[in-house]
Amino acid sequence: MCSIRCVREVIAKHAADTPSGPGSGPRWKRAVPLSRVQIAGVIVGCAVLVAGGLTASLLGGASGGARQAAVRNITVGSAAGGGAANVAMPQMAATPRMAVMPKPKTAAPAAHPNSPAPHSAAAAPPAAGSATCTKPSYVTSDPSGMWNQDPYFVFNNMWAANSYSVTQTLYACSYSDWYVVANMNNNSGDGAVKTYPNSHRDFNNEPAISSLQSVTSTFAETSPPAGIYEDAYDIWLNGIATSGSTEVMIWTENHGQTPSGSQQGTVSIGGRSWTVWKTSGNYIAFVATSNFTSGSMNLLAFFQWIMGKGWIPSNSTLGQVDYGVELVSTNSVPATFTFSNFTVNAS
What we know:
Blueprint: H1 4-17, H2 36-58, H3 64-76, E1 78-79, H4 85-88, E2 138-140, E3 146-149, E4 152-155, E5 167-174, E6 177-183, E7 198-202, E8 215-222, E9 228-237, E10 246-255, E11 262-269, E12 272-278, E13 283-288, E14 294-298, H5 299-308, E15 318-329, E16 335-346
Parallel strand pairs: 10-13
Antiparallel strand pairs: 1-2, 2-5, 3-4, 4-7, 5-6, 6-16, 7-15, 8-14, 8-16, 9-10, 9-15, 11-12, 12-13
Helix pairs in contact: 1-2
């Protein structure tokens, strides 16, 4: 039998959830009395819930750990596959270091409270998608949605979308073949980076750069002609987003962005010319003087050049290599950014 307290709680919840007044939003709630018939229905409903809970207990219902695992699956995002999603769901990285976000240039909360929930398993990609990723295995609109393909991770990463009107959905066929559909603007005029959807590879043992003979990467991307953004590598040395880490960015295609810090000159690496920027802290950016959308990168050459300048110590280590797009604005229209052929190899 449902207790009087149970009935009161349900009636109170009904009152709190009943919209009224202009906008009918959360700020315009007032109580609407229930009829006797409705109260009787509440009592019956409570009785059914209590009986259901008793039945689950007698049958040995899910343990706390199992429920926690289910929650973990939901927060990561949705895998395609319908009813099998709970079994095939990609898991979050085993340790926090796998789920780091790019270092903010300005302080901002990582999560957007108004962001849409992750897409359902049956969600279909929009018409303006990817020519190669036509049947995504992973879809998410979660600001922190991440697909674990250890040692690679595909990350929606809406790290600074708070306080802005931003929607973003990531569709992935693999760590090297994915795309994102985003909609945002720069109406505030502050030029703030709001998201950095990316694919990245973690180096769990963080090898010393001096011990490596080669660190190479390939990438290909297609981005719209309008908006404010840059397609770029975001690389973490000497740890990942810690106080002692160095963040190295390599911008391959730039549309209206300027790196943090001050210009340090130009350098030729890998047959291309780069403008170098540096802050007084641990941030270094190489900006291609001519945009390019695909290629093979000798990342070790960038690290060695930085060491030669004395900007990082000779015993520096490699923690993570990301490639994606830092987004400021899509001019308030949905825009599609596609990525393919992403690899990172070190030996």
